[in-house]
Specification:
Layout lengths: L1 H32 L12 H7 L11 H21 L2 H9 L8 H22 L11 H22 L4 E4 L3 E4 L4 H19 L5 H19 L3 H21 L8 H18 L6 H4 L1 H19 L10 H7 L4 H29 L2
Antiparallel strand pairs: 1-2
């Protein structure tokens, strides 16, 4: 049975990769045709502007490729299953991953986050919003919180989730505190993903390791549809990275970073591994922490800790090539995810 599910997941991952690869030329041509280029502001971030001025005009919204491919594959097999049922020996049901208990919420969360991010990207292209850069961070955080509250309501009221899994301790009953925990995870992952998406291939590569870990965790917990969903995101990310590594042909944009961040947080909560997220998404934590530290230092001490934030820009300002920063952050992510999985398995063994 485990082999059965493993093969199914590999098939769906491969299909997601191929679909993303096939739709990329069409999406890229549309982005170039309609000149959906990214605006690089310079009024409040001179270091960043100096480092990335040459990238201004590069098409954004490439994240459509990631979530578009995943949703297209999911929708296709769901419709085929509804129309053809279990014909061909149950083949269509075999590839259908839509499941009320496992994948309803992450799929809906991905769609909502992706569409909101897409709207923000369009505002940026049209130079609408503060300094012509789309929604301000204040409104983005508000949107993240609203999405978190909706998800928290579903988990707490509909699914009646009231526990937090603590490594080597076990489930901890937190009752109503689960709602603010859920909102915190949603806001943190969405914000951190947005901050990490600043170099070619950085968020795509680090997210690849994160979703690999979440797929492994879901598989071990017997949530095979959720594991397949995570693996399909991996497949689409691999295709996206083919074009997004330095020098990127297009950027992910908020539609991609928001979708990845919200979905990552949702899957972590569904598998009750929220406390493993710092290990499954270490770069996201480091990036957002650097921004928070910089803001606090500037407000209180009137001085900067880093040359520029998020921290990947600090290393660029020190003279590191963009590709070097990206690859080293990938390595950190790979090592951290390996450690996270080891601790996850050891914790399960310890509590048996």
């Amino acid at each position: 049975m485990i082999t059965f599910h493993a093969i199914r997941i590999l098939i769906l991952t491969g299909i997601s990769f191929l679909v993303a690869l096939l739709i990329t030329p069409m999406i890229a041509n549309l982005l170039y045709r309609y000149k959906a280029g990214k605006q690089i502001g310079h009024t409040d971030a001179p270091v960043f502007y100096g480092l990335h001025q040459k990238k201004e005009g590069t098409p954004t919204m490439g994240g459509v490729i990631i979530w578009g491919a995943v949703l297209a594959v999911i929708a296709a097999f769901f419709i085929l299953y509804q129309v053809l049922g279990n014909s061909f020996g149950g083949f269509w049901g075999y590839l259908n991953i839509v499941d009320r208990r496992e994948t309803y919420l992450p799929i809906v969360a991905m769609v909502i986050a992706a569409l909101i991010g897409l709207a923000d990207d369009i505002f940026g292209v049209l130079k609408i919003g503060p300094r012509g850069g789309g929604l301000s961070m204040k409104y983005r955080l508000l949107i993240y919180a609203v999405i978190g509250l909706i998800g928290a309501w579903w988990f707490y009221v509909k699914l009646q989730w009231t526990t937090l899994y603590v490594p080597f301790v076990g489930p901890l009953q937190i009752d109503g505190w689960y709602i603010p925990l859920f909102v915190l995870v949603m806001v943190a992952t969405a914000f951190s993903a947005n901050e990490t998406d600043g170099l070619d291939g950085l968020l795509g590569g680090t997210s690849l390791f994160s979703f690999a870990s979440l797929a492994a965790v879901s598989f071990v917990l017997g949530r095979y549809n959720l594991a397949a969903f995570s693996a399909m995101i991996m497949g689409a990310l691999l295709a996206f990275l083919w074009f997004n590594i330095y020098p990127a042909r297009f950027f992910m944009g908020d539609t991609g970073s928001m979708a990845l961040g919200i979905t990552m947080g949702t899957i972590a909560l569904l598998t009750n591994t929220a406390l493993f997220l710092p290990l499954f998404a270490p770069i996201l934590v480091i990036e957002s922490a650097s921004v928070i530290v910089q803001v606090i230092s500037k407000k209180i001490f009137k001085r900067k800790v880093f040359l520029s934030t998020p921290i990947h820009h600090h290393f660029e300002a020190l003279g590191w090539h963009e590709a070097r920063v990206t690859m080293r952050f990938w390595i950190i992510s790979a090592v951290s995810n390996g450690l996270g999985l080891v601790l996850f398995f050891l914790s399960r063994m310890f509590l048996r």
